[in-house]
Recover the amino acids of this structure.
């Protein structure tokens, strides 16, 4: 009987709790990367506006529907455009944004390296 | 050659930075959301305000008529401002005004319509505010002009005389 109880606890209580916790973590991660529609400069996670709260519910529903993080982002992107994402996806509109720091880093590195070699 | 490399690289970096900042100068410092139009009407199961009946949005926007979906709420002050325009649009035969009552108390919403008139052919009741998000709305009030199951124009904020004339022109 005791074993059965332990079995039930492990298989029913813990997985559900951990699943809920996982969903909560994912929900927080997603809402932190979504821009608040009304209070600009704030993420949906940080905002308590009516629309931000509705958006949190939609994210929750989408997670429960089984959508992945990427699918949820593209869903919101299709509704609101790239603007809604704090972390824009890598595509033809954003490649310059993503590659510029790298480009500057490599050019700067090359200059430093060249000067270092010269002085030696 | 070696001597030229450094000034060329620095000039190139300067030009790139200049272009980026110059482009940024022309942009407004307030984010203006990209108004996504030509999106299809989302297929959603919604509750009707009056009857509580659950219907699919395709049933509401099924004909090739023009529809104006207006998101409103009794607690929203700008909604009061635009209401007279909606009442005027109601009289247009080629347009059906559909309301979406956003996160509202039903009694307050009923009083609002009693006081200012009911321009809506049907009202969708969006208790949790999730339908508005599915439509890609930014706030209340907001209006979507729909034709052939496609969103052809989006009006963020209250409708005014300019948007009223534009809607009349578009549905002609």
């Amino acid at each position: 009987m005791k074993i059965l109880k332990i079995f039930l606890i492990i298989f029913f209580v813990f997985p559900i709790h951990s699943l809920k916790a996982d969903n909560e973590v994912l929900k927080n991660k997603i809402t932190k990367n979504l821009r608040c529609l009304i209070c600009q400069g704030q993420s949906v996670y940080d905002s308590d506006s009516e629309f931000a709260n509705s958006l949190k519910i939609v994210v929750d529903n989408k997670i429960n529907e089984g959508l992945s993080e990427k699918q949820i982002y593209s869903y919101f992107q299709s509704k609101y455009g790239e603007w809604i994402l704090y972390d824009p996806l890598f595509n033809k509109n954003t490649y310059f944004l993503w590659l510029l720091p790298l480009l500057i880093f490599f050019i700067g590195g090359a200059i430093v390296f060249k000067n270092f070699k010269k002085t030696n | 050659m070696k001597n030229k490399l450094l000034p060329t690289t620095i000039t190139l970096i300067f030009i790139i930075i200049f272009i980026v900042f110059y482009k940024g100068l022309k942009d407004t410092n307030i984010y203006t959301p990209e108004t996504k139009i030509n999106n299809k009407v989302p297929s959603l199961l919604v509750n009707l305000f009056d009857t509580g009946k659950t219907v699919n949005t395709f049933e509401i926007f099924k004909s090739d008529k023009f529809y104006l979906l207006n998101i409103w709420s009794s607690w929203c002050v700008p909604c009061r401002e635009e209401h007279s325009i909606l009442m005027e649009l109601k009289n247009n035969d080629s347009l059906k005004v559909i309301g979406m009552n956003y996160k509202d108390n039903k009694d307050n919403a009923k009083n609002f319509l009693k006081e200012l008139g009911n321009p809506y052919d049907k009202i969708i009741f969006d208790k949790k505010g999730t339908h508005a998000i599915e439509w890609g709305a930014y706030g209340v009030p907001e209006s979507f002009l729909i034709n052939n199951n496609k969103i052809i124009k989006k009006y963020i904020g209250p409708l005014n005389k300019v948007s009223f004339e534009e809607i009349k022109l578009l549905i002609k």
